[in-house]
Amino acid sequence: xxxxxxxxxxxxxxxxxxxELSEQLNVTAQAVSRWESDEVEPSVGTIKQIAxxxxxxxxxxxxxxxxxxxxxxxxxVEKPIIVEKPLxxxxxxxVEKxxxxKPVLAICDYCNKPIYDENELIKISVPHHHGRGxxxxxxxxxxxxxxxxxxxxxxxxxxxxxxxxxxxxxRLTISLIVSPIAALILFFIFLGVSQQAEQPWQLIVFGxxxxxxxxxxxxxxxxxxxxxxxxxxxxASWSVxxxxxxxxxxxxxxxxxxxxxxxxxVLGVLISIAVFLLACAIAMPLxxxxxxxALYVNIKHKKEDKDFLN
Length: 310
Fold this sequence. Notes:
single chain; 4 domains; two-stranded antiparallel ribbon; two-stranded antiparallel sheet; 9 helices; 6 strands
């Protein structure tokens, strides 16, 4: 008997309608109807609730055959044999076999089949963080067969490898498009300025160098498999905290406050620009040395991911 027919039979035995059963399970009556017509199957948690409502075991609800345990019992039957000589009683040994049902320990979340053997049972507790910080954490318990857990781990690893291969390929493609464009823009800026200079070849050479540095720096930032962006960001985020301003509550004091606020704002912008240029001055020369390594790591990981997928 299918699971849907079993649910329908148990519901009719209880004298319940599909709506009454759906209200106890917190689902719609249409969902119960689809179960009973075997269009879809209820989830593992819903199967447990249905078994509880009808006061039967999960194994009985699923209609799974349990693993038999053979118990041998010797029964002595005395069978008289009549002969001409004195009565002799012959003993016949009869072996009775009874089947003891093993309990269902859990339902595998991967294959949705019952687990009978405790040695095959693997429990996994997965934390889920809600909001910021680690204050609101809930745990979801999952149960697997040992073989199903190994198969699931292999599938998760392959999925992660697919994701990393795609991500590395996209980053390399973006770097090969964006970096040359930025380098050419910077070169043409210096080329345009050189037309009005007394010695244009110096600006042209400087433009070529600046273009190369821009290409390697932006490529290292996009590939994200090196330390250069972290170094640049740590230097560029430097800031200066200005002291508080003491002033009097009169017209001159307010004027002094406004002037000092504007002065601090201008100084803050100038310091930010200077720090940004300092970070670029440190990161760009280093990028010439870092870029070959970053390109090698990206291509190597891409090749390893391809070999893994094949």
